[in-house]
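Hi all, long-time lurker, first post. I run a small reading group and we've been trying to get comfortable going from sequence to structure in the token notation. Rather than ask abstract questions, I figured I'd post a concrete chain and ask someone more experienced to write out its structure so we can walk through it together at our next meeting. Sequence below, copied exactly:
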Amino acid sequence: MDAMHSYPLKFTQSPFAPTIIQAALVSLELELENPLTAVLHFIGDALGYIARRAPSAFATTVPTEIQTGLRELISAIGSELSYFLLKGMIYSFPTHCVCNGARTLAILIGIEPVTSMTWVEAALRSLPQETLAPDKFENFVNHLKEYESCRWNLLMNRSAIGDCREIQFQIQDFVAFYRRRMMITEQMEKHVFNFNVGG
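-- Answer (accepted) --
Happy to help. Here is the structure in token form:
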């Protein structure tokens, strides 16, 4: 993270950058809050550079070389990134990490609206279908598609920021529904198991 903040161009051009990005991707399966938060911030900052927002205090603008380089790195893992973010938020992320996960996915959708929707739909369809109610699935996807025009421009205008916040809230609502749904299911299964054992 420090290397990307202090030397973003060198980081982007480094032969180790794809490996570091891949390691961050795999690390999304962590269930410990502190390291997972750090990974989500790292990925969020990389997406911020692509959106022409310099997360580093040392820069006020983002050179095209950095934006293009990081876009290529993220696009190469976009499908997997969408999957790990959605899977983690629904099934394994600590509660405090869900907001960061939703923000990260919202920025991804904001900078790659059409492509990322394909990634999100594929990720959702690859999750265990018994936990995904068809009507909630369709409503969620349709709501996100309403914001496909949310493209991040050079000035990061207020309407673009507002749209991406709406995307984040939609994601958080969707995840909250399924986390509650799974909690109820687990409690019911535990009750049935205890009843059968006791009986």
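A couple of things your group might point at:
The CA atoms of residues 134 and 140 lie 10 Å apart.
Residues 152-159 have pLDDT under 50 and may be disordered.
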